[in-house]
Amino acid sequence: MSAARASVSAAEALRLVATGVPLVDVRETDEWDAGHAPQAVLLPLSTLGEHLDDVPEGDEVLVVCRSGVRSARVVAALRQRGVPAVDVEGGMLAWRDAEGELTADEGREATVR
User: Is the pLDDT of residue 21 over 90?
Assistant: First the structure.
């Protein structure tokens, strides 16, 4: 793995997550509750600055949002702080389209919001 890459496809993200690479979801709580990757850690963009110490450690840390816009900004900010962050291109929409698993709370049908 190369920490120099700035982004990966959703299909590659699925493969990486299956090998134990951490996945950080920066969507807001209501989006997370509607549906998220079961392996992901929720660190909403709106509170991320207060929780930088909660970003998982690893050779790479994947970052995802709904479509890739917010996560790209988070990746840039984390990289400035020395975190080997990598954006998941296309976000959770691409994750879903690549047949990535989604789960929702309270037995609801999972969706991407």
Answer: yes
